[in-house]
Amino acid sequence: MTWRATPASVATDGGARRGLRIAVVGPTHPYKGGVAAHTTELAHRLAAAGDDTVLVSWSRLYPALLYPGEQAVPGGSPDLPPYPRTAHVLRWDRPASWARAGRHLRSMDVVVVVAVVPVQVPALLTLVRAVRGGRGAGPVPRVVVLAHNVVPHEGQPGGEWLMSRLLGAADAVLVHSAAMGDEAVAHGARHVLVAEMPPHLPGGVPAPVTGDVPPRREGPTRVLALGMVRDYKGFDLLLEAAALVPDVEVTVAGEQWGGAGERVRALAADPRLAGRVHLDAGYVPADRIAALAAAHDVLALPYRHATASQNVTLAHAHGLPVLATATGTFADQVRSGVDGLVVPPEDVGALAAALHELADPVRREALRRGVPPVDLDGPWRRYLETLLHAAGHVPDPGDPAPRPAAHHGPGPR
Length: 413
Known about the structure:
CATH superfamily of the largest domain: Glycogen Phosphorylase B
Largest sheet: 7 strands, parallel
Number of strands: 15
Helix content: 25-40%
Number of helices: 13
Strand content: 15-25%
Number of domains: 2
Distance between the termini: 33 Å
Order of helices and strands: EEEHEEHEHEHEHEEHEHEHEHEHEHHH
């Protein structure tokens, strides 16, 4: 693994800028989940754009006591192609590794720090301080915190205070929704930009559908709830609603954590749902997603609250309409009545009404035909422009394509 990036002379966008020396610090394979996939794709995209990019990751990510379950992808098969210039040098239980990694990154132009959960903040703060130390009068790398969450989904003692410390230490913070931008400013960020989360599809791009749309399916509507079962995702609310709509079957595919998993298992045993709930417990690897999508009629995102997610894009890429709640970015991503349905969060009656609508095969087919083609490259181009603008290396992108407006706190130091 080569730590020290070399000055790049590759120009992109017709010579608009020179390649930069960029370090991305975050989880990647063998760790599973959307954040690891996004971090991996980000490194690939930066390198493809001409930036001399290194990915600094973890050999031990979380303490098992705080984050139970298998942290690595079962079987070892990556969800996305691994980034070749990756150094797995960080360990949550080795503070010396935090500072050592930061010292190695002092030659960079930009250090992008991926922030997800408060338990990692002490390590990331130590790394940022080491990045900025020991350079004398020379240039100091710009530090951009890429915050997937500002306020933790599930409260942790001192979690918001820790996140505030990290956001306040950054030159700029990049978030994925305007609401998160407001949260970041409220938690100490001084310069905040918003960019729509670009797609990082596990398993890659689905094969295009050729010919006519397949004929309408017969039988009950098959609803897929995909991902780790957590309280904030509201899978229990979906099952409560399904109990009120006889012509619907639900598959819950994902790991089942703690009380949320117990709640889903208890609801699946409800006599009203007998034979209509399928619990596919365990991590869903990338190579199973296409088959799961093909076996269902709609993807459900019944979240109680959310930040940003690529799950709408994932569903649309596989030709599925989406049933989502109006939280996070879902209401912006789903055209209710066209390629899915959007209902208020934490409203079982509204979810049941939407499921009843989806149980009508004609209505279900109309929504399926409304699913748009997915643009996999445009969002990434705009995302990288915003990231490098946050780092102070390119002008404001000013792209006319619709996306959340940039939200600025006080200027960078």
